[in-house]
Specification:
The complex is a heterodimer of chains A (about 270) and B (about 110).
Chain A (H helix, E strand, L loop, with lengths): L10 E2 L23 E2 L16 E8 L2 H17 L1 E8 L5 H12 L5 E7 L4 H7 L5 E5 L8 H9 L7 E6 L16 E7 L6 H4 L1 H6 L2 E5 L11 H11 L4 E4 L8 H18 L1
Parallel strand pairs in A: 2-6, 4-7, 4-8, 5-6, 5-7, 8-9, 9-10
Antiparallel strand pairs in A: 1-2
Helix pairs in contact in A: 1-4
Chain B lengths: L1 H19 L5 E9 L6 H12 L8 E7 L2 E4 L4 E4 L14 E5 L3 E8 L1
Parallel strand pairs in B: 1-2
Antiparallel strand pairs in B: 1-6, 3-4, 3-5
Helix pairs in contact in B: 1-2
The chains are: A alpha/beta (about 270), B alpha+beta (about 110).
């Protein structure tokens, strides 16, 4: 159950190849291997009555609710001693391939858990589970990003072990996930060299919100006209503090620096917790 | 289209307000939106009716006040206008820390 809003949980989708011999009635079992569906939601409510016309001052951030959930997630992760990273990028940058590679390389050093966000399907969570670590798939339905409420429910279903890593793979989208804090320690933006080098300038919010930029598919550079220097300059212009690492999920090149960064930051966050 | 979920969040704030004080319907909802923020006013307007339909905010009019971008220039020691989020100081060219233009707030609403 949510500690923030008190709701039970979103509807876990019953998988088609998973038959229960009994009827659930109103009760639903939660299975870590089933997606959580936030795509279907009821409308609000309406109560009749009369009251005079007046102006009510609200003065609250539209995202204040999300922020409350994010703060709760962050506290929960800190208390559990889990270091969480939120991976964001456009679709097709290789986030999942990068995660599969990183998990394979790191799983003997850390307990790892993964939250996967996509509009539909559990393909990505299936790829992650094939590496042997637990993963929860969130299907956002019409939504274009993960929010902190969804992630809180995903955390309910994952083992959060002290000294562990949590990777949250956001919905492939360079716009909306920038505005939604999930409770992570850092946002990591993945940009692949098959995209335009000016993407940081075209989608500045995301590159401003991230602490690290992974320039993925760098093994393809000899075959492309991608200007690495101008891409780095563009990223630094929108975020002078962003750390940039050229990597390849396919060959593994550059990933040691990323792992070293994770080790240093995870140790720092444990020390400050 | 994260404007849909932003309007859903606005409806949630309206519903929360109604648990504090009763009103029958909302006539106007006023948002304050930063010109350099990530929400597009036209997209918010576009989805407003569809998202609020069937909720406590159904039939309300959406008014959006835009807040221009501003930043603090360390070297000029003053507030300067910002045309884009990462622009430098239009006077001296130094880096500027954005101080306004990122707002995404429900300012007030008219109810009856």
């Amino acid at each position: 159950m949510c500690t923030v809003c008190g709701c039970g949980t979103a509807e876990p989708l019953e998988s088609h190849d998973h038959h229960h011999p009994h009827h659930h009635g109103h009760h639903r079992h939660e299975h870590a291997d089933q997606p959580i569906d936030f795509g279907s939601g009821p409308a609000g409510l309406q109560i009749a009555g009369l009251s005079p016309r007046r102006v009510i001052s609200i003065e609250r951030d539209i995202l204040s609710k999300n922020q409350a959930f994010a703060d709760a997630n962050r506290l929960r992760l800190q208390r559990a001693g889990v270091f969480a990273l939120n991976l964001v990028s456009s679709p097709g940058s290789g986030k999942t391939a990068l995660l599969v590679r990183a998990i394979t390389d790191l799983k003997q050093h850390y307990p790892i858990a993964v939250v996967e966000g996509d509009q539909q399907t559990s393909h990505d969570a299936d790829r992650i589970r094939a590496t042997g670590v637990p993963a929860v798939q969130i299907n956002t339905g019409k939504g274009c990003h993960l929010d902190a409420h969804m992630v809180g429910h995903a955390l309910d279903r994952l083992p959060l072990e002290a000294g562990g890593l949590l990777f949250i793979e956001n919905v492939g989208n360079l716009v909306c996930p920038a505005g939604f804090d999930l409770g992570e320690a850092h946002k990591i933006v993945v940009l692949s060299v098959t995209e335009g080098e000016d993407k940081p300038l075209k989608y500045p919010d995301m590159f401003a919100a991230a602490d690290v930029m992974l320039l993925n598919k760098s093994d393809l550079l000899p075959h492309l006209e991608f200007d690495v220097d101008s891409c780095i300059a563009a990223a630094l212009r929108v975020n002078p503090h962003i750390r940039i690492l050229a990597v390849s999920a396919r060959t593994g090149q550059g990933l040691e620096s990323f792992y070293a960064w994770i080790a240093a930051q995870a140790a720092r966050s444990t020390a400050s917790a | 289209m994260h404007e849909v979920s932003l309007i859903e969040s606005v409806v949630a704030l309206v519903e929360e307000e109604r648990r504090k004080q009763y009103f029958e319907r909302v006539r106007v909802i006023r948002l304050r939106l930063g010109a350099l923020g990530h929400a597009e006013p036209e997209a918010l307007r576009f989805c407003f009716d569809a998202v609020t339909n069937g909720t406590v905010a159904a039939g309300a009019r959406l008014e959006i006040e835009m807040v221009p971008g501003e930043g603090w220039c360390e070297s000029c020691c003053r507030t300067v206008p910002l045309e884009e989020r990462f622009a430098t100081c239009p006077v001296c060219g130094a880096d500027v820390r954005m101080t306004a233009g990122d707002e995404l707030r429900v300012a007030e609403m008219e109810v009856e």
